[in-house]
């Protein structure tokens, strides 16, 4: 059959409150044209993030009831630890309340001024946690990863030639080598198993631990199965184990590929490093058998990890993104190719060439998507990256709008609706105007900046 059906039935529903175009014009104006300022019940299709927005399964809901809330030594922790270790065979598993907490704890020990941490592309919380310690976060993704139209199957790959030069020059300044799978900040693009192994071998050649940011590990493993020669006959679980077998640790947000609404972990093999971070964990997150989470959350993660490696789910997941991207391309809406796992990234620079980067074409498009169809997305362009610490403003390398897909939440008719909204936008796109910022905070302006349309 050509139709890939949602591999689940719906047992509990959450109503969407319908709104009119006129109402949405008022809502977005009173949010100062910043979509983070909307009340989420004024949104019809919420594609702001795939983080913490997944639908839980019946088995996960049942696991919540079985959660044990003991402060220390809870059976929920041991179920969580066993589920994590069955996919990621690291020695020490430290739960945290979300992914950035794992990053903060890790870099409180590994960071510091004059240190440099290479990765394919650091996600912004990883970068911020590294920089907060005075260290530098360095991105070394392959050249193809910067080109939205390049069809390379693994555009998240590390440029290993650059990494080798970097390690040879930077020497003792490098505390570890990192790798983000899939590469969220680079368009949700996967990394090949061969590249993971090569990167690990280079890190080890220079005596550095190799740490994977594994947020979307299952999607990455499924892309390896689909696209990497020799991997097609293997089960995703086996590929996951291979990806992590060469690593010395991982950071994880369970809000992505563990189907949880909250949670994360830091995993490590090194006893000494684990002891240092455990002390930090107790200080900021909690006792090491709950790490900032309720027992019920640990149980939801344990069950979610069993479900995320289901290949029927992953086929539906990856196909949803490519289905929307293909239909948008047919309408003349350019997207980052090939489509990634968790999101569709629209190339707003190419779609709206009449809006200059400093009038924020991505923001203009995101606002139009909300007004036209109640769709909430996220600008990833000059609004997010254009303001520099010295106060200057420069266009970002790409002007993207990310439509992130919550897991198991929306159906094919929601996907068709999204495409239909773009039909209207594409017809009238020449009438869209840019935006002006009327107020912005000193840091992370995309969350709270105020805008007005340029008339
Ligand atoms: N690493 C990656 C690759 C991420 O995508 C995220 C979060 C984190 C780390 C941090 O995890 O949110 O649990 O603290 N990404 C979300 C997003 C926020 O919308 O892409 P967290």
Automatic annotation (TrEMBL):
This protein's UniProt keywords: Lyase, Pyridoxal phosphate
Keyword Transmembrane helix recorded: no
Residues in Aromatic amino acid beta-eliminating lyase/threonine aldolase domain copies: 46-419
Cofactor(s) the protein needs: pyridoxal 5'-phosphate
SUPFAM superfamilies, alphabetized: PLP-dependent transferases
UniProt keyword Transferase, yes or no: no
InterPro entries referenced in this protein's UniProt entry, alphabetically: ArAA_b-elim_lyase/Thr_aldolase, Beta-eliminating_lyase, PyrdxlP-dep_Trfase, PyrdxlP-dep_Trfase_major, PyrdxlP-dep_Trfase_small, Tryptophanase_CS
Family under the similarity heading: Belongs to the beta-eliminating lyase family.
Subunit structure: Homotetramer.
Designated name of the protein: Tryptophanase
Organism in which the protein naturally occurs: Rhizomicrobium electricum
């Amino acid at each position: 059959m050509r139709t890939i059906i949602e591999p689940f039935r719906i047992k509990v529903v959450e109503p969407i409150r319908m709104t009119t175009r006129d109402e949405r014009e008022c809502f977005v104006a009173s949010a100062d044209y910043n979509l983070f300022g909307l009340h989420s019940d004024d949104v019809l299709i919420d594609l702001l993030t795939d983080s913490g927005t997944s639908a839980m399964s019946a088995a996960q809901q049942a696991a919540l009831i079985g959660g044990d809330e003991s402060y220390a030594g809870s059976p929920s922790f041991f179920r969580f630890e066993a589920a994590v270790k069955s996919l990621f065979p690291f020695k020490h598993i430290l739960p945290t309340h979300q992914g950035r907490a794992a990053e903060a704890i890790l870099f409180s020990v590994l960071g510091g001024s004059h240190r440099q941490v290479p990765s394919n592309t650091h996600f912004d919380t990883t970068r911020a946690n590294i920089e907060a310690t005075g260290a530098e976060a360095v991105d070394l993704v392959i050249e193809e990863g910067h080109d939205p139209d390049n069809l390379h199957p693994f555009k998240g790959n590390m440029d290993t030639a650059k990494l080798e030069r970097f390690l040879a020059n930077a020497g003792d300044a490098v505390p570890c080598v990192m790798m983000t799978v899939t590469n969220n900040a680079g368009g949700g693009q996967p990394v090949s198993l061969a590249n993971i192994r090569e990167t690990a071998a280079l890190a080890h050649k220079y005596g550095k631990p190799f740490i994977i940011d594994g947020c979307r590990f299952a999607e990455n493993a499924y892309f390896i199965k689909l696209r990497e020669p020799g991997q097609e006959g293997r089960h995703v679980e086996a590929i996951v184990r291979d990806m992590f077998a060469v690593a010395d640790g991982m950071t994880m947000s369970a809000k992505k590929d563990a189907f949880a609404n909250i949670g994360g972990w830091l995993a490590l093999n090194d006893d000494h490093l684990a002891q240092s971070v455990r002390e930090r964990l107790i200080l900021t997150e909690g006792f090491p058998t709950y790490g900032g989470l309720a027992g019920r959350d640990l149980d939801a993660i344990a069950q979610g990890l069993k479900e995320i490696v289901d290949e029927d789910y992953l086929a539906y997941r990856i196909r949803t993104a490519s289905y929307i991207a293909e239909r948008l391309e047919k309408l003349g809406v350019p997207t980052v190719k090939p489509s990634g796992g968790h999101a569709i990234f629209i190339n707003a620079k190419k779609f709206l060439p009449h809006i200059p980067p400093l009038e924020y074409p991505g923001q203009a498009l995101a606002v139009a998507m909300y007004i036209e169809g109640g769709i909430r997305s996220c600008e990833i362009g000059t609004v997010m990256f254009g303001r520099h610490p010295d106060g200057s403003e420069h266009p970002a390398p790409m002007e993207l709008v990310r439509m992130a897909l919550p897991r198991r939440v929306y159906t094919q008719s929601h996907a068709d609706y999204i495409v239909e909204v773009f039909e209207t936008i594409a017809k009238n796109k020449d009438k869209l105007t840019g935006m002006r910022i009327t107020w912005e905070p000193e840091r992370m302006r995309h969350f709270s900046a105020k805008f007005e349309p340029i008339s």
